[in-house]
Amino acid sequence: MVSTPSPPGPRAHFPGAHLLAFSRDMVGFVCRLKREYGDVVAFRLGPERTVLLSHPEHMHEVLVRQHRAFLKGRRGDVSTQFLGLGLLNSEGVRHQCQRHLLQPAFHRHRLAQYATVMTTAAARLRQSWQDGETLDIAPAMRRVTLAIAAKTLFDADVEEEATAIGRAITTLLQLSPRVTMPLAPLLRRVPLPSHRRLRRAQASLDTFIARLIDERRATGGKTDDVLSMLVGARTEDGRPLSPRQIHDEALTLLLAGHETTALALRWTWSLLAQHPEVDVAMQAELQTVLGGRLPTAADLPQLPYTRMVFAEALRLYPPAWLMTRRAREEVVIGDYRFPQGTFFLLSPYLTQRDPRFFPQPEAFVPTRWASPPDTGPARSAYLPFGGGPRQCLGEGFAWMEGLLVLTTLAQTWRMQLVPGHPVEPRGLVTLRPKAGIHVQLARR
Fold first, then answer.
1. Do residues 405 and 145 touch, judged by C-beta distance below 8 A?
2. CB-neighbour burial class of residue 5 (10 A; exposed 0-12, middle 13-18, buried 19+)
3. At what angle do helices 395-410 and 276-290 cross, to 10 degrees?
4. Do 198 and 191 form a contact (C-beta atoms < 8 A)?
5. Of 33, 328, 334, 424, whose CB count within 10 A is highest?
6. Mean pLDDT, rounded, for 227-254
7. pLDDT for 179 beyond 50
8. 357, 378 in Cβ contact below 8 A?
9. pTM
């Protein structure tokens, strides 16, 4: 076999140095690696032989062309302890069967039925705000998208429980990266306060999901939603899904069904507050098309600039900012050959801020999407919902929800950032604002 060169990468000054730096500041760490070593970077993440990829051609190789050569999970990954083997964590044939089972819930005609739920929840939120009020927009976006996910997917009203559920989900997302690091199987047994908080959050969500499932079984699963679909589903051999299977799918959908859109909306509001000229242009379009009424799904094609605003926010701040894969066999990526077991980090955050594919990559320029690239590396460089067979099943749901909530709220309110509260990204499982996004509301 012809030998191939090893990718460039940093040397660790002491064992575990890279793991420590990564856990302290994930975004800053991968940005430094990209800046100093390029598109393919090899380093040790604890005991893991790890490779960071950020060129769209390399990402396409892993996610699309050679996707069968990779597993999603990490060795020793304990996220299954919290989310089980739902759509997010499953592999192979099981994953394909789960996508096939859930696909009807996200069909285009089904999405149109969700639109009224989305605008009603957003209208209720905008009526609760006061002119001049100062608030962290993050919890507000989390509550509205959680209410939408629960109603559309589970036919459940969670307004009274939204704060507690949101806190549990936030705890899960903030602390679970610590227990999915390479040494997690050993560390998770240590009775740390953070581990106890994580277990309490998990128990709270498990109880909530179990109650929804029990209620649905009691009604015979006759409502037309995803939970009823799961309760009534059958495996290929005719058996109903196990309670654990239903739980895992429901919890995964609840988490993924609101978290990414809530984050996309937070970052969009932050960017609009910092770029009033974009806000003015978007508002002109909303007034022309909607004239103050609530939007519908049918209105969205008539709002191209608003869609460009949301697309650009997703480029700068993709909620799923870092993806993981493990080589299940020897693979060749670009000029390099990697052995079985190599752990890969793929970063849409880095790719979508690469000046080779997006001129002025750090600038908020919605009009760059007026003529989106159809082919070539630039098209593959935009991956806010992943790519390949594991691309987010709810992408259409997220686009519609994000645009309907944004247009409903923006017709009545504009936002200004509160001085003294810098907006910085923090990379966890998702890309969250480090200290929230504090705004002052102004009625239009």
1. yes
2. exposed
3. 90
4. no
5. 33
6. 84
7. no
8. yes
9. 0.91
